[in-house]
Amino acid sequence: MAARRLEPATVRRRAAARAGHTGDVDGARALVGDEEPKVRATALAALHRLDSLRPAELLAALADPDVT
Question: CA-CA distance, 58 to 6, in Å (whole number)?
Fold first, then answer.
């Protein structure tokens, strides 16, 4: 069976989720400004999970033009 090729945004989103489950605050924080809304949201959730979400990051998320 051939391996399925993932979209780059999916790879980044998975990296953000993984960061939240492995304690990688820097990895999650690096993806908070990603171009894809779902990656940004997953990175924010990861930082929340790690109790490392900064007020400025939350405020930026609330002002995000993409509501998803």
Answer: 29
The answer for residues whose C-beta is within 8 angstroms of residue 35's C-beta and 6 or more apart is: none
Tell me the pLDDT tens digit for each residue of 2-56: 678 999 999 999 999 999 999 999 999 999 999 999 999 999 999 999 999 999 9
Q: How far apart are CA 12 and CA 19, in angstroms?
A: 10
CA distance 25 to 43: 9
Q: What are the two backbone dihedrals, phi and then psi, of residue 27, each rounded to the nearest 5 degrees?
A: -65, -40
63 sits in the region (left: phi over 0; alpha: psi -120 to 50; else beta) called: alpha
